[in-house]
Amino acid sequence: MENTRKTGVLISVLGGFYYVESEDEIYECKARGVFRKKNNSPLVGDKVEFSLQKEGYCAIENILPRKNSLIRPPVANIDTLVIVSSAVDPKPNTFIIDKMTAAAVNKGIEPVVVITKTDLADCEEILNIYRSSGIKTIAFSKFEGDEKKEISNLFPGKIVAFTGNSGVGKSTLLNTIFPELGLETGDISKKLGRGRHTTRSSRLYKVNGGYAVDTPGFSTVDLERYEIIKKDELQYCFPEFKEYLGSCKFVSCAHVCEKGCSIIEAVNDGKIQKSRHDSYVAMYNEVKDIKEWERK
Ligand SMILES: Nc1nc2c(ncn2[C@@H]2O[C@H](COP(=O)(O)OP(=O)(O)OP(=O)(O)O)[C@@H](O)[C@H]2O)c(=O)[nH]1
Ligand SMILES: [Mg+2]
Ligand SMILES: [Zn+2]
After folding, report:
1. Distance from the CA of 165 to the center of ligand 1, in angstroms?
2. What CATH number is attached to the domain comprising 232?
3. 137: helix, strand or coil
4. 292 φ, ψ to 5°?
5. Domain region containing 40
6. What is the tally of structural domains in the chain?
7. Whose CA is nearest to atom 8 of ligand 1?
8. Judgement on whether residues 85 and 194 belong to the same structural domain of the protein
9. Do 122 and 206 fall into the same domain?
10. Which residues line ligand 1 (CB under 6 A)?
11. Cβ(169)–Cβ(141) under 8 Å?
């Protein structure tokens, strides 16, 4: 007897099992050993083919071609990456936000910056940095309502992943907009030592005609080896640089400290945010000596 095959979306990976949603049902699947050998395990967000075995269990047979994938958070096929950062506790770090927005742009994913806990501290400065950089930017507080609609409008027809440091309020934000999710959230004062990540694994939730992906927060050290962007591609990962590219004095301008650089002129004229250019330079310096063969 031939085993029945179905396709579905991988919504979570827990305790060695893969949970696949297909036609509104969730199937608990094992993965074939072959995925491990090829260092190509299924990621949350993957479209997969799975079989219903006559012994009664399901097995993932095949990962369908991916539109994109990220290492951190480990997700595939996402349309939007929401980079969540809090006004305080923990304080925003523009270098981390810039690395993540650049990685998203590099992979054809729309970056959105959300600043949370706006009830606790003034955040005009950071909001202004991203609003003036051509990136969709939303201020959010769990106590106010205005921005809920803007966030819920991100979902129809899309897979939207939320990422950011542990404790910035990713799960709280999703609960505020979709109370039916009932996600576990953690008190920041308890996020010390081992128990600091409240959300333990990434998972897709069906919301407003699309999917939200809640992910475990990262710590800053995790980001030291984030997605590496080739030095020649980096300039295209900062949307606000676009209108100036091509007008530098030197064709091969790296926009780091060269004479006649139109990007640096725009920074000096206040048209490009200095912190964004600083991040660009730091990222450029991180990759400038990496040879093609050293890249993963
Ligand atoms: N005052 C205030 N507190 C907030 C807000 N959003 C989240 N918090 C608090 O921040 C703490 C952490 O929130 P979580 O939602 O667990 O954070 P998380 O980003 O999901 O953390 P991980 O799952 O560990 O990655 C909780 O105590 C929340 O109540 C907000 O808008 N205002
Ligand atoms: Mg969480
Ligand atoms: Zn230049």
Report:
1. 10
2. 1.10.40.50
3. strand
4. -50, -45
5. 4-63
6. 3
7. 169
8. yes
9. yes
10. 116-117, 119-120, 141-142, 166-172, 185-188, 197-199, 216-217
11. no
Q: Which two tokens stand for residue 196?
A: 């600091």
User: What's the whole-model pTM score?
Assistant: 0.94
pLDDT on residue 295: 56
Examine the fold and report which residue of 199, 222, 245 is the final residue of a domain before the chain moves on.
222
Q: Region 9-16: what's the mean pLDDT?
A: 93
Residue type, 280: Y
Q: Quick one: tokens of 49? A: 């083919």
pLDDT in tens, 185-241: 987 655 554 456 789 899 999 999 999 999 999 876 666 667 889 999 999 999 999
Q: Are residues 136 and 183 in the same domain?
A: yes
Length, in residues, of the chain = 296
Q: Give yes or no for residue 167 having a pLDDT over 80.
A: yes
What residues have CB less than 8 Å from 46, skipping those under 6 apart?
Answer: 9, 10, 63, 64, 66, 76, 77
Beta strands in 72-229 (DSSP E): 75-76, 80-86, 110-116, 136-139, 159-163, 203-207, 210-214
